[in-house]
């Protein structure tokens, strides 16, 4: 039975790569059609030919680079501090009552930067990975693991899009859209000439006409997807959070992680502008904890003593955030006082004193 199960798993792994192979073949053909059939065989003006080839290859390299990074960047998983120890695991599994299990989870969670809950108010726990889920972390059934800040599992990249590669995915959408728009725009006049029989009927006719149809079709779908994810970045939401708001101790709040448009952007792309347009990891934070607009960060107020999580190092000046510390990059997001996007919130945020109690006792 074991060999059969292993064979089935290997077969599915191969099948999962079919969409990636399909996209790769389309891109390879588009390179041949544009460079050879359009630029080298059809365009006669040397200046136009050189400009088209230069711009095309810049977009092509960035498109392939971001696609590669999105596919082969391994999703980040929760740190070992979120996993149950051997003794806690045995204690948890031997408990039959749900209330007792929750007591065990609450005891472990009080030293971790965990604020989100299930819709019923319970600690979020993954019974497959045997760990407490960090905020914005979800279990992917396709990858069979918990993914930090999971957005969605994308079959076109055969990978989970999450904290580790969400910036790469955004850049992939941007450069693939620019690539398709450029190809469609520069191919249009020759497409019209072939369509109206203004050019001789050669082998290039099929490639140029189909290239325009393919580039135009992909441009429309990519434009909708890119605009949607730009909206998600501005709101600081994942695709999963857009469909179901994250729940806290006080209830669901879809704008809890929104710090204002500019800070939301920095959380994904980082605060170093030289890396914004490159598929190099520069996102802020560690993926396990995120600043929220639910708690007023007052640098003048003394910090609350707490048992610090050894996995999360807080560099720089401490700020008032319920006893669980954040990283320096996250602290910078909250250091400028009130968040900029207060008009986007559906809740009163920091003005509600009930929201300041996020840690269960």
Automatic annotation (TrEMBL):
<feature type="transmembrane region" description="Helical">
    <location>
        <begin position="50"/>
        <end position="68"/>
    </location>
</feature>
<feature type="compositionally biased region" description="Polar residues">
    <location>
        <begin position="331"/>
        <end position="340"/>
    </location>
</feature>
<keyword id="KW-0012">Acyltransferase</keyword>
<protein>
    <recommendedName>
        <fullName>Palmitoyltransferase</fullName>
        <ecNumber>2.3.1.225</ecNumber>
    </recommendedName>
</protein>
<keyword id="KW-0808">Transferase</keyword>
<dbReference type="GO" id="GO:0019706">
    <property type="term" value="F:protein-cysteine S-palmitoyltransferase activity"/>
</dbReference>
<comment type="similarity">
    <text>Belongs to the DHHC palmitoyltransferase family.</text>
</comment>
<feature type="domain" description="Palmitoyltransferase DHHC">
    <location>
        <begin position="123"/>
        <end position="243"/>
    </location>
</feature>
<keyword id="KW-0812">Transmembrane</keyword>
<keyword id="KW-1133">Transmembrane helix</keyword>
<feature type="transmembrane region" description="Helical">
    <location>
        <begin position="14"/>
        <end position="34"/>
    </location>
</feature>
<dbReference type="InterPro" id="IPR001594">
    <property type="entry name" value="Palmitoyltrfase_DHHC"/>
</dbReference>
<feature type="transmembrane region" description="Helical">
    <location>
        <begin position="168"/>
        <end position="186"/>
    </location>
</feature>
<feature type="transmembrane region" description="Helical">
    <location>
        <begin position="206"/>
        <end position="228"/>
    </location>
</feature>
<dbReference type="GO" id="GO:0016020">
    <property type="term" value="C:membrane"/>
</dbReference>
<feature type="compositionally biased region" description="Polar residues">
    <location>
        <begin position="301"/>
        <end position="312"/>
    </location>
</feature>
<dbReference type="InterPro" id="IPR039859">
    <property type="entry name" value="PFA4/ZDH16/20/ERF2-like"/>
</dbReference>
<feature type="region of interest" description="Disordered">
    <location>
        <begin position="299"/>
        <end position="361"/>
    </location>
</feature>
<dbReference type="Pfam" id="PF01529">
    <property type="entry name" value="DHHC"/>
</dbReference>
<keyword id="KW-0472">Membrane</keyword>
């Amino acid at each position: 039975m074991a060999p059969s199960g292993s064979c089935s798993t290997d077969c599915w792994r191969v099948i999962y790569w079919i969409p990636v192979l399909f996209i790769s073949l389309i891109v390879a053909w588009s390179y041949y059609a544009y460079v050879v059939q359009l630029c080298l065989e059809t365009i006669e003006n040397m200046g136009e030919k050189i400009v088209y080839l230069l711009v095309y290859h810049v977009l092509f390299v960035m498109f392939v680079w971001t696609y590669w990074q999105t596919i082969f960047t391994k999703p980040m998983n929760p740190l070992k501090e979120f996993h149950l120890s051997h003794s806690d695991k045995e204690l948890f599994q031997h408990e039959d009552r749900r209330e007792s299990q929750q007591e065990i989870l609450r005891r472990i969670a009080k030293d971790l930067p965990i604020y989100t809950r299930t819709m019923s108010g319970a600690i979020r726990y993954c019974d497959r990975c045997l760990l407490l889920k960090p905020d914005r972390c979800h279990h992917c059934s396709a990858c069979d693991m918990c993914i930090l800040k999971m957005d969605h599992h994308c079959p076109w990249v055969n990978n989970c899009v999450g904290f580790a590669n969400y910036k790469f995915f955004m850049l992939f959408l941007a450069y693939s859209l620019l690539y398709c728009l450029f190809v469609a725009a520069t191919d249009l006049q020759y497409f019209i000439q072939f369509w109206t029989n203004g050019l001789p009927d050669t082998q290039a006719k099929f490639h140029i006409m189909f290239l325009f149809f393919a580039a135009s079709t992909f441009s429309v779908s990519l434009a909708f997807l890119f605009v949607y994810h730009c909206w998600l970045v501005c709101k600081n939401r994942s695709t999963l959070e857009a469909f179901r708001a994250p729940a806290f101790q006080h209830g669901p709040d879809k704008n809890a992680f929104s710090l204002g448009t500019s800070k939301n952007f920095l959380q994904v792309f980082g605060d170093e502008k030289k890396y914004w347009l490159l598929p190099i990891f520069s996102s802020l934070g560690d993926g396990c904890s995120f600043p929220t607009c639910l708690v007023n960060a007052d640098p003048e107020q003394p910090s609350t003593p707490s048992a610090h999580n050894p996995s999360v190092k807080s560099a720089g000046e401490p700020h008032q955030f319920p006893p669980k510390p954040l990283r320096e990059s996250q602290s910078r997001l909250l250091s400028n006082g009130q968040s900029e996007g207060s008009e986007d919130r559906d809740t009163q945020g920091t003005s509600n004193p009930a929201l300041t109690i996020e840690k269960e006792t």
